[in-house]
Write a structure and sequence with these properties.
The chain is of the alpha/beta class and 213 residues long. The protein has three helices and 15 strands.
Length: 213
C-alpha cells in the first residue's frame, strides 16, 4: 500500500486498472443483504448472484468482513423452497389463473438467514443453499454445493459439501476466533499483515497469544 493511499471499503473497483473485481459493500441496494467491509467479489453485480430472494420470506443474507468470493458463486435464498408438507410441491400461487393463496411461512421449509463469517474464501462456481451458516476463516472448494453449516477454519468440498479437514489445530482456531483481526482498524491490520500471512503457524500462535495478553 502506498504511504499516501489507504484501503477504502467504499471503492467499488479496489484494484487499479481492473474492472472485474469489486468490493461488495458499496454495490448493495437491497437492505436485506448485509456485507462487511473489504469483502470482494471476482465479478460485478453481486446481487444478481442472489436468487429466489423474495420480500415475503423475510430472510437475510449476511456476509462478514474480508471475505473472498470467486466468480460464479451463487446464493440461493429461501424463496427457492417449495411447500413439502402437502401432497404436491407445485407452486400454484405463483402462476396466473390458479386459485391458491401464498402459503403461510409456517407451511414453507424456511431455513432462516444465510450467514457467512469473516475471512471466508468461497471457490468458483459454488452454490450456498438457504439458511447455511459458514464460520469464520472457512474455505469452500470450487463447484461445491453447501447445504449444511460449516465450522470455522474448516475446508469443505463437493456436492453435497463435506468437511475434508480443519485448517489449523484447535488451539490456533480458538485463538483466531478470540483475536478477530478483521474487527481491528486499518492501521492495526496493516501492522498485522506479517503475522496474518506467515506460514510458520507456531510463530503465529505465539504472537497471537502475546497480543491477546
Amino acid at each position: 500500500m502506498s504511504d499516501k493511499l489507504k484501503p477504502n471499503p467504499y471503492q467499488i473497483f479496489p484494484i487499479k486498472g481492473c474492472d472485474s473485481v469489486t468490493y461488495i459493500k458499496p454495490t448493495i441496494k437491497n437492505p436485506n443483504v448485509i456485507v462487511g467491509e473489504f469483502s470482494y467479489f471476482s465479478d460485478v453485480d453481486f446481487e444478481k448472484h442472489i436468487t429466489h430472494f423474495y420480500d415475503f420470506n423475510g430472510d437475510k443474507l449476511v456476509i462478514g468482513k474480508f471475505c473472498q468470493i470467486a466468480s460464479g458463486v451463487n446464493f440461493v435464498m429461501n424463496g427457492a423452497n417449495h411447500q413439502m408438507n402437502a401432497v404436491s410441491t407445485y407452486p400454484f400461487y405463483i402462476f396466473n389463473g390458479w386459485n391458491e393463496k401464498v402459503p403461510s411461512v409456517s407451511d414453507m421449509p424456511i431455513k432462516g438467514d444465510t450467514v457467512v463469517g469473516n475471512d471466508v474464501w468461497i471457490g468458483q462456481n459454488s452454490t450456498i443453499l438457504p439458511g447455511v451458516h459458514i464460520g469464520d476463516g472457512a474455505i469452500i472448494g470450487m463447484n461445491s454445493v453447501v447445504g449444511s453449516d460449516v465450522e470455522p477454519y474448516s475446508i469443505v468440498v463437493g456436492n453435497p459439501a463435506r468437511q475434508i479437514r480443519k485448517r489449523f489445530d484447535d488451539e490456533l482456531i480458538e485463538l483466531m476466533l478470540k483475536f478477530k483481526w478483521w474487527d481491528k482498524s486499518i492501521d492495526e491490520i496493516n501492522a498485522l499483515i506479517p503475522i496474518l500471512t506467515c506460514s510458520d503457524l507456531d510463530k503465529v500462535k505465539n504472537k497471537i497469544k502475546d497480543l491477546l495478553n
